[in-house]
Amino acid sequence: MQYDLGTMLVLNLVFSVKVAPAVVFTATLIRSLILLSGNKRVFRAWTRNAMLSAVSIIFFPGSIINTAVRYAICSLFRIDLKGVAAGSTYAELNLFLKVDSPPRVVVLISALFVSTIASVFIGFSLLFLPVVLLANAPVYLLCWYLSLAVLFNSSLKGGDVSLLGAALQKHQGKGLAELVLALSVLIVFYSFVGVGVGV
Fold first, then answer.
1. Among 14, 22, 27, 87, whose Cα sits 20 to 30 Å from the Cα of 124?
2. Per-residue pLDDT of the chain (199 residues; tens, 9 = 90+)
């Protein structure tokens, strides 16, 4: 059992690295489509987008897990974090509250990449662990729900974009060069490992 579990964890890690871009793209696309379906400018109630807020609340446990992973990884990369805030606009957590002292662009992208891989790994681990551990039906359902919640919250967030923009603005020439370098490395990496479930 330990050997099977260890093997599946390793295979899941490799799988998570491969499909992470597809997961982020899909989750971001779904959130964007929901966002565009709502009222974006004027507050008519407590939120700008009732549907996105409802989905965010339903999958809120996944947001907590993702934020905890992102916080831990960013702390390891020594990114200056002020705290965590829950915005009422779309009922989502925002980790990057302090953008006046942004990190180097390559550091930020590295931290976002590692934390995304970790979140996707956790999400897919929640799918197969009940099978390996021969869990009962309620545990299956709970793990599947948490898996969907984690994967849904593995999207690109507004705070990520804001901090990246601040990092580019502060480090200007070097920041743009680091961005191009980091994206080039990721493109080359994924051209070798492949992207998607069928690779």
1. 87
2. 545 777 888 999 999 999 999 999 999 999 888 877 765 544 455 456 677 778 888 898 998 999 889 889 988 988 877 766 565 455 566 666 566 677 888 999 999 999 999 999 999 999 888 877 777 788 888 999 999 999 999 988 877 888 888 888 887 778 889 999 999 999 999 888 766 544 4
